[in-house]
Amino acid sequence: MRTLVLLGLVGFAAQLVDGSLGMAYGVTSTTLLLTIGTNAAATSATVHLAEIGTTLASGVAHWRFDNIDWKVVTRIGIPGAIGAFAGATFLSNLSTDSAAPVMSLILLTLGVYILVRFTTSGLPRDRMGKPLRKRFLAPLGLLAGFVDATGGGGWGPVGTPAILASGRLAPRKVIGSIDASEFLVAIAASAGFIVGIGSENIDFTWVGVLLIGGMIAAPIAAWLVRHIPPRILGSSVGGVIILTNARTLLRSDWVDAPGGVRAFAYTAIAIIWAAAFAYSLREYRRDQAAESAMAAENAEPAVSPARH
Fold first, then answer.
1. Could you give the CA distance from residue 82 to residue 145 in angstroms, rounded to a whole number?
2. Within a domain: 293
3. HEC-encoded secondary structure of 115-136
4. Cα–Cα 20 to 30 A to 262, which of 38, 58, 192, 289?
5. How many folded domains does the chain comprise?
6. Whether this model's pTM surpasses 0.70
7. Would you identify the family this protein belongs to, as annotated (predicted)?
């Protein structure tokens, strides 16, 4: 019973983070299930089956809050589903340990870019509104879907920073579109795992508990992303990307950093992230105050000379 309660809380927390930052449901849930002792394929299958429900609930919630660009959903979601099915069916037994550091290095670079760009200058506006083309979204979807199926998570960490870095879509639209398109990825990956390993190694009670926790959190997360300012949201996403991928790199065979070095690095990243968040919040408030003052000045009626 204690395990089920813990799983429900993890499902809630994972979806709250995923729905508001566009990533981390699979990573968080997969980490816990692997810690309990589930094998990799069954873990990924369990998480993706739960994600069918959580991503559907999240997509509906984001749609109601107008956080979705449906063109992006179809252009990235369909290739993502193809990549996820291929990864789950044919490559679920292939170790991705050797590829993880390379992917983490790329994502870490994107995370630094996003954190610096949003913290120092807010939402990129020079390309805002320009279309995201299929030749960019289709390969991105294939890669993200493949990584998601073989690694137990990765749709958000791969897709969200790449689209954010393009500067062509508002952060809330990026997150809502990634969450909605993940429904297609979850269905395809689940089908692939059932074809590849069957259902005997999947604990459907765990699937249900993760699902319930995630569905409760989905509308809350969609409301949060609707009301969090883009500048602050961008800084938050950048910090999550940097921290999670720095952890992967430091623990990889490339670096294999001692525990003390890892602790120091995590602390330094957390301090820099907190400072960036505080700066973004301060600058946002300053911009809001300036805009309010300008609006009040423009709205003030011209004073005509008094007549006697």
1. 7
2. no
3. HHHHHHHCCCCCCCCCCCCHHH
4. 38
5. 1
6. no
7. Belongs to the 4-toluene sulfonate uptake permease (TSUP) (TC 2.A.102) family.
